[in-house]
Amino acid sequence: MKGTHMDFELPEDLRMLKETVHKFVERELIPIEMEAMDGPDLKPDVRASLERKAKDLGLWLLDVPEEYGGMGLGHLGMVVVWEELARTVALPPRGPGVFGPDVRPVLFMLSPEQKEKYLLPVLRGEKKTAFAQTEPDAGADPGMIRTTAVRDGDHYVINGRKRFISHVEGADFLQVVAATDRSKGSRGGLSMFLVDADTRGFQITRKSAMMMNDVTYELAFDDV
Questions:
Q1: What's phi and psi for 93, nearest 5 deg?
Q2: Is the pLDDT of residue 110 over 70?
Q3: In the 8-state DSSP scheme, what is residue 162?
Q4: Residues 71, 189: Cα–Cα separation, whole Å
Q5: Torsion of CA 148, 126, 22, 104, to 10 degrees
Q6: Among 52, 61, 124, 187, which is disulfide-ready with 70 (CB 3.0 to 4.6 Å)?
Q7: How far is CA 207 from CA 68, 165, 204, 217, 219, in A?
Q8: Measured distance CA(173)–CA(198) in Å, rounded
Q9: Percent of the chain's residues with pLDDT above 70
Q10: Which of 126, 92, 43 is nearest to 215 (CA)?
C-alpha cells in the first residue's frame, strides 16, 4: 500500500498574511495589554488607533467578499488570523476585533433594499449589530429554541427570551434566530430575523457581568 504525502504548508499569500498579523500583534497589541481595555470594551481612542493602523496594513474587512471592499478570506485564512490574535489578551474576547466590523454571512444574502438599510451601513461603520441566538433552555442546541416567529399577513410576530447575548447596548439592529416551525427543530425550522433595536415590544431585561470582563444581556421579545 503506497503512502500519500500530505502538504501542510500554507500558500504564499497566507504565509505573508500570517507574518503581517504576527508583527501587528507583537508591535501594537502585546505592549498595550495592561491598558487597552475599559471594562469589557477597548478604550475608544485605543480602538480608533488600532483600526487606523490595521487599515494602513491592509488588514481590513478580512472575510468580507471583495465585491464589498473586503479581502474575501476563507476559513483557512481566518484561522491564520485567529491563531496569531490568540497570542494576546489586548482585545475583547468576543465581538468585533480591530480589523473591521463582524459581519455574519446572512447579511450578504439580503435583498438590495435590505442591504442598503443593514449591510452597507455596518460595513461603513455607521451601524452596529448584535447576534441573538442563545436562550435559557437553548445554548449549544439551536433546535431547542423556544422563541417563535409566527406569520401574520405580510410580517412576522416574534415572542420569546434570549440570554447571554453580547454587544446589545448601542446596537442599531439585532440578528434574531427564532423558530418558524418548532416541529422541524434545527433542520429547517429556524429562521433569522433582522429586528431594529427601537422596535416596540423589544427590551433589554437584564445586564450581567461575566468572566474576563465580558458583559452579556437578557432580552425580551413581546409581540415584536
A1: -70, -20
A2: yes
A3: E
A4: 33
A5: 20
A6: 61
A7: 34, 9, 8, 5, 9
A8: 8
A9: 95
A10: 92
For the full predicted model, state whether its pTM sits above 0.90: no
Which residue is listed with cell 505592549? Answer: 31
Closest CA to 223 of 202, 205, 204, 194: 202
Residue 219: which H helix or E strand, with range? Answer: strand 215-221
Residue that is written with C-alpha cell 431594529 in the block: 196
Judged on CB neighbours under 10 Å (0-12, 13-18, 19+), 108 is: middle
Rounded distance between C-alpha atoms, residue 115 and residue 62, angstroms: 19
As a dihedral over the C-alpha atoms of residue 142, residue 220, residue 93, residue 124, rounded to 10 degrees, the angle is 100
Look up residue 54 and give its three cell numbers.
490595521
Q: Where do we find the cell 478580512?
A: 62
Q: Which of 70, 97, 102 is nearest to 82 (CA)?
A: 97
DSSP 1-48: --------PPPHHHHHHHHHHHHHIIIIIGGGTTTSEETTEE-HHHHH
Where residue 210 falls among pLDDT bands split at 50, 70, 90?
low
- Check residue 94 and give its pLDDT: 74
In 110-161, which residue ranges form alpha helices assigned H by DSSP? 112-114, 120-123
